[in-house]
Batch of 4 targets.
Target 1
Amino acid sequence: MATPLSADKVLSALKAEGVKVVEYKSWRTHNRNSAGAWGPVHGVMIHHTVTSGTASSVELCYTGRSDLPGPLCHGVIDKEGTVHLVGHGRANHAGSGDGAVLDAVIAEKKLPPDTTAETDGNARFYGFECINLGDNKDPWPAAQVEAIVRASAALLRAHGWGKNGDTSVIGHLEWQPGKIDPRGPGISMSDIRKRVADRLKQSAGWSPDGDEEEDDVPKRSLYETSSYTRTVQPDTWTTLNFNRYYDGKKWVDKDPEPSVLFGPCYYTASVAVKVAGLTQGQEFKVRVARYRQQDGKYVRASAMPTSSPVNDQGKGHFVHTWTGHVPAADKGRLRVEVQHHGPEPVTVEWARAESLYWPA
């Protein structure tokens, strides 16, 4: 059994992991302990708010609704990657869920399907609400996802969880039947768990360049397609082109261009791809590849490990993340490549490549 961390220890753990934190109102004493138990705790649960706007979302999660008093979580993670602490103790975020899922979280084993709702989750999980409309269209920025990873890793590290697996972090949709959060372009719980597991192998302040960080704030690169599709023939690695980018204030249209990151730098890159034409059970491959200049042309120098999801639900929306290095030599740059082995061509209807990077 795990005794919940004190407010001071939660704050210290988050800051040690490199999380930007805002303490909101009287979060340290704001809870629902009068309504039920708080602890023992066993994991971290991720949600989306179904709202937009930081100030209003944070206030809602602090105060609650007429039918559900606050706090509605312990921390609100905004689009920029800041965690706003709104409660400490029991919070109305998880509700009742599947006891078999809780058993798997405690044992750090593969999660079973959630089929029942008979176990009190508010007593057992820390909860983070993340600002997102939840309509499966509102994108999840890389900075926000990185904050989810770091905040989750911070609490797992403080409790000593994650030594036998990585399922101490779950989504609301994996706990309570009928829930869908978190969802949308740029996030998947399997990716979150993998990245949390990778962080826990490093020291708390780890960053991709291997240095302990204090104020080492990464830069952001964001490209996507808009009204631009790409046909992918069978058995052929195809490079995706992106025809607009975000300059920090607005989206800027540009001629289609394949490169989404330019060296020298260390990076964490997330790629979301929406594909039409896949059949159920068909594999679709995604990877990022480093290119270098040779004889006036760019040629592939190396490729990161391929993510190969199987289209097992009749849907074609995939999200993948890689961490790596683009060297200075030969004007290196990063591109996105896809492949499939189906009988007919498929179409990439939309793609987004978002990176946090540290110039080297």
Target 2
Amino acid sequence: MMRTLDILSIVALISAASWTFHVKHDADLVETEIRKMERKIAAEKETIAILSADWTLLNQPGRLQSLSETYADELKLVTVRPDQIVAEHQLPAPPEPKAPDTDEIGAELVASNDVVGR
């Protein structure tokens, strides 16, 4: 009887140890993935900060003014007048889509039948 209890205890101990090792291993894998994602997030935040600084530098009014003066002949830019700015409801309506003619539909059907080989 004592041997059976000892064997069951040893099996239970080995099972608990292997389960604990498996859980610890899974936790280590998850922690590694979290660290990788944190590094990626930090790199993306740094990239965003660099791009934001670059955008701020490129959009400085003085720089844009000097560029527009330098390339005035090629760009042919003109000053915007206040009467050119309108609200959405003042814009003209987009053109209505043109319905295809029935002859065009028939020609398409004939062309598609020729391709299929009917």
Target 3
Amino acid sequence: MARVYVSMVMNATLDEAWAYLRDFGALGKYHPFFENSFIEDGKPSDQIGCVRRFSVRDGGGYLREQLLALSDDEHRCRYKILHIDAPWTNYVAEMHLLPVTEGNRCFGEWWAEWDVPADEEAEAMERVKGTFRTFFECVNAHHERRK
């Protein structure tokens, strides 16, 4: 079983980061690895059970992910992969944001667990780490553009 954990202190406030990251369907609008992100069946992007579909920019196929939990009070979301063009199974990830009172910034943590063939585990883990790290970097870039 592969396990990944990524954390970062972002320059955005908790409310700014959460407003940006909580939109489950907006992934393709800001993450450089992905495109054509949308919520299937026209459901709201914060509805538990909604499914987002998006393409990987480098021609790596498409993914479908289902929102399992979303809490505005806890600034937390959880989702699972329904489809990926890779031999991954049982993928579940969770993202959580917390305030950093000094400097009015935000701490983000993102983790995932899934099954992947042993010979592909190291590459899969680096791919997921890079994806999560880039999410947080996108929050910083968005915050800088708004200043």
Target 4
Amino acid sequence: MDIKKRNRIIIKICSILLLSGAFIYYFFFNNPSDKGTVFLRCPSNFIFGINCPGCGSQRAIHHLLHFDILEALRFNALLTIMFPFIIYITLIWLYNFIFEKKIRIKLFYNNKFVWTLFFLVIVYGVIRNINIYPFTLITPP
């Protein structure tokens, strides 16, 4: 490996560690539920008063970093359940980015999987706005 390529890899790794460390540090020590934080409110909830599939994600991430799974589920069950999957995807993407590889996960190129995931997110977004008992359990507090 030549020195330029090695230096690019080191710069990428340091940049990723710095940015992800800052992200994790901020989400760990700042609860988005607290008043006075700089976390943005969901635009669909703020403008239209509906909960999108991502509503509660910031609070769920905060609780996941504290290993409070039940509380994370209260804020965004879909994100909490898919969190290990999202971490795996992110690690594969980072590996490809850092080492300039092209590792592909065949599942993501399967139309049935992509459409099923899309359908799941849409259905989750719809049912969390139904104001009837079992559905109110997945509405963020």
